[in-house]
Amino acid sequence: MTARVDRELNPAELEAFGQELDALRQRTLADLGEADARYIRRVRAAVRWCCWSGRALLMFGWFPPTWLLGTFLLGLGKILENMELGHNVMHGQYDWMNDPEFAGRQYEWDIVGPADFWRHTHNHVHHTYTNVLGMDDDVGYGVVRLFPEQRWKPFYRWQPLWVTIQALLFQYAVAIQHLRLDKLVKGRISKEEVRPLARQFGAKLARQWGKDYLAFPLLAVLLGANALAVLTGNLVANLLRNLWTFLVIFCGHFTEKAAVFAPEVLEGETRGHWYLRQLRGSSNLSGGPLLHILTGNLSHQIEHHLFPDLPARRYAELAREVRLVAQRYGQHYNCGTLWGQFATVLRRIWIYRLPAAGMA
């Protein structure tokens, strides 16, 4: 694999680098206003329209093209809710609106994982320790070796299979991550510590399954519609959302030129160091407005890691300036097409399943 080439920055350059990005963040914060509020309200309306239109069409059963169109619209609504609405709202990007519906600490999204789990494992742990081995659990999610710096374990031989299962069941994977079952098995935490989290997960799981796989199929029966068509439509819509979310997240973190870091990097880490780590550990996707919206603007993963609490709709304009800052300081700005980046992810999954891969 081709190693990324970045110029090492001296302390003065690191401080200036951090100041430039801080200033960019402050300028954007000062410019937030009604256009941003109007945008997120339109996203919320689009989510509702897609989901309810999709569910209504599924009530017509298998008759083409209602099942296909209904499943597609429901899946689209779930993707938009997960990526552009829920994920971004939970980062506190719209807290300044003082609208309870867009309050980051209150929002509950439409997946089996409780929002509180995500706010801890993602917003706090991942964004604090981005790509730091042993600190950021998102590096391989405990079941995948994606970098030669990760210590090899025998079950990595089968990681193409583990990744496939993870992609199909991605919402469950990110929820279970918070339970820290690996620590439980190793005796590092007790059952008493895990039990309340498991109950919280079970309650959210029951609500989600009850809605998608019980309530709406039962409604179909009451309306004389085809309950099986409704059930399978919900199932496929959730599957589409799982696969898309997996694709976007893996392409944002584990591409060919994404970097990982030893824990020692955190010692005395300054603001400039932190910004530099976010830049080097992230990958962007090139594309048009539709791609950016469907990814929740995580196609601008670099900008998201630099400025997680800024409205994601601003990332496209921020990206132009961030790229220029990176160039001035001799830093590689990792950007490529969706399928080009994903190809490098697949290559990593295949190569690093073996113990000696990349250790020359």
From TrEMBL:
<dbReference type="InterPro" id="IPR005804">
    <property type="entry name" value="FA_desaturase_dom"/>
</dbReference>
<dbReference type="GO" id="GO:0016717">
    <property type="term" value="F:oxidoreductase activity, acting on paired donors, with oxidation of a pair of donors resulting in the reduction of molecular oxygen to two molecules of water"/>
</dbReference>
<keyword id="KW-0472">Membrane</keyword>
<dbReference type="InterPro" id="IPR012171">
    <property type="entry name" value="Fatty_acid_desaturase"/>
</dbReference>
<feature type="transmembrane region" description="Helical">
    <location>
        <begin position="161"/>
        <end position="181"/>
    </location>
</feature>
<dbReference type="GO" id="GO:0006629">
    <property type="term" value="P:lipid metabolic process"/>
</dbReference>
<protein>
    <submittedName>
        <fullName>Linoleoyl-CoA desaturase</fullName>
    </submittedName>
</protein>
<feature type="domain" description="Fatty acid desaturase">
    <location>
        <begin position="66"/>
        <end position="335"/>
    </location>
</feature>
<dbReference type="GO" id="GO:0016020">
    <property type="term" value="C:membrane"/>
</dbReference>
<feature type="transmembrane region" description="Helical">
    <location>
        <begin position="213"/>
        <end position="237"/>
    </location>
</feature>
<keyword id="KW-1133">Transmembrane helix</keyword>
<feature type="transmembrane region" description="Helical">
    <location>
        <begin position="57"/>
        <end position="80"/>
    </location>
</feature>
<keyword id="KW-0812">Transmembrane</keyword>
<dbReference type="Pfam" id="PF00487">
    <property type="entry name" value="FA_desaturase"/>
</dbReference>
